[in-house]
Amino acid sequence: MFSFLLDGSAAFASGFALSTALLTLLTMSEAFEARWANRHEIIQILATVILGVILAMPFANLGCLILVALVVFFSCVGLRAVLQDFSVAGVCYTLQAPLIIISGVWWYLAWITTVGFSGWYFFVFALLPVLNATEAMLDYVLYMGTYSLLIRKVWREPFGPAISSRRVLDSMPFVSVHVPCHAEPPSLVISTIEALSRLEYQNYEVLVCDNNTNDASLWRPVEARCNELNAESGKELFRFFHIEELKGAKAGALNYCLDITDPRAIFIAIVDADYIADSSFLCRLVPHFDDPKLDFIQTSHDYYDRKKNLFNQLCYWEYLLGTKFSMAGLNELHAAFTIGTMCILRLKAVEDAGRWAEWCLTEDSEIAVRLRARGGKGRYFRDTFGRGTTPDTFVDWKRQRFRWTAGPVQQLLAHWRLFLPQWLGGSSGLSGWSKVFETVRSIQMLSGIITLAGVMMVATAMLLLPPQIPAERAGLLPALGFFIAFALSTTSLVLTGIGYWLAGCRSYWMMSASMWAGAALTYTRMLATAAALLKIRLLWKRTPKFSANFGRMRALGGTLVEILFAALFLILIVMVIMKANEIGWLAVLISAGGLIRFFLSFLAAPLMALISANSEVETLK
Hints:
Layout: H1 2-27, H2 41-56, H3 62-82, H4 88-115, H5 119-146, H6 148-151, H7 166-170, E1 175-181, H8 186-196, E2 204-211, H9 216-233, E3 238-243, H10 249-260, E4 267-270, E5 276-277, E6 294-300, H11 310-325, E7 343-346, H12 347-353, H13 363-373, E8 377-384, E9 386-387, H14 394-415, H15 432-464, H16 471-474, H17 479-503, H18 508-519, H19 522-533, H20 552-557, H21 560-578, H22 580-583, H23 585-620
Parallel strand pairs: 1-2, 1-4, 2-3, 6-8
Antiparallel strand pairs: 4-7, 5-9, 6-7
Helix pairs in contact: 1-2, 1-3, 1-4, 1-17, 2-3, 3-4, 4-5, 5-15, 8-9, 11-17, 11-18, 13-14, 14-15, 14-19, 15-19, 15-21, 15-23, 21-23
């Protein structure tokens, strides 16, 4: 009876995951809108549950499926009453994700027990599914916030910028715009400051801080253009500073700007040296600060060079999945954070919080933690108010992602006490979910590192240790096992695809290619996580803006470690398959499955390097 119930639970969970993905596709394909919201929601839940039963019927007893379906149906109805801001798709997702993960692993562990595995052999066969389930549960915790566009129907926080009037414009408070730069192409920075000179705003200044640029030919033209713009406007709108031996990289430059900010300033805005700001940047965002608790506003990253070549397009959509989709719902959970450019902050709050952290690789998101811990609020808008440049080489992309990954880990190590529950001394200013979010997003790649070690350990054990039972007795995974795996992978792909659609991508090929491009950064993200956890001294390295053709061999040289890992995993895959008659195809499936996952991720890195090298040649032509 127990095995029938377990089969029914795992089978229905898989069918329900697929039907929920279909419901999400039908109802959540427009940002901040849920189709059929508050209309026949009980019927929507019932239809989703019934479809789940139909899909699961080939894999389990119908009576068990109906019993499980009834429990899930009434659970969804009850959950709907609790999660009133969630759409039906959101309610179903909230239940189905942990249901398929837990029931799937439980079913698998029970099945290998019935096969006769025990002791170390049981451990070897159980390890990878358990590690994968742990990764999936961590992702689920993050997705409850980053999947907000897929699961919410009610938005209580503003999700779009204000439309200012001329009356409001005339009374706007003074804003000091800070533009830090180091060794940038003069034409790039000049384009940035020229755009800032056209802002539809009356009371602002622009501080351009060039720090530690040794070549005067790079900063002198920028200084000259600032003077020209001042002459054209008839006022000192721009102030240019060239500082030698300034410590603290970008954070140091921003802190220097704080020292020289006009005393009239109420707010500061941060604009990177390569960003072309929209003329409405300030006038549409500053009105939000009528809320005295609002300490910062962050707008979406965007890029104007995405069509330059294939590599830039892949980078572009990998970026926008995060900035246009994943971050869009953080306001609702009070977990918004700044991401370095096109943001506005309340000056007094920044000063009171202790200014920019020169020890952190992500000084932008780090200060958001301190601001929110003090009781301040932040808002994130997915709207584009400025566009910058994407990296030109895969090596530069890796360098940037290393910084973006290591920084949050540094934040966690420095501020972990803030993320504790209040009764353990944690911050009362941070919401409970934001504490979980900050913690999980910082350690997410740690679970990947552990899984990687587990994959290598399991493969080695399969090759070296004698089988506990004959290969023919172990057999292959039952059909239900394949159905569970199919449902998990298909659901993940569908939901990610909807995320790309909401981010603006309309090419299914580009969606797939961008997912693969993101996988090419797996080793970089793992290395950054490990380096930050081990407290290795890490230097802030800017993303170069000068285009250069390094050639294919040099591009591949930047991915040597990934190539070696890919070769190692390919050898292990071949060795495991060659030993199939001895260890059984189940052992091959379990070990090779994990090996193939990381092999493809590591292989993606040199392929992306070649794409970037070829793209450089095309661009130069």
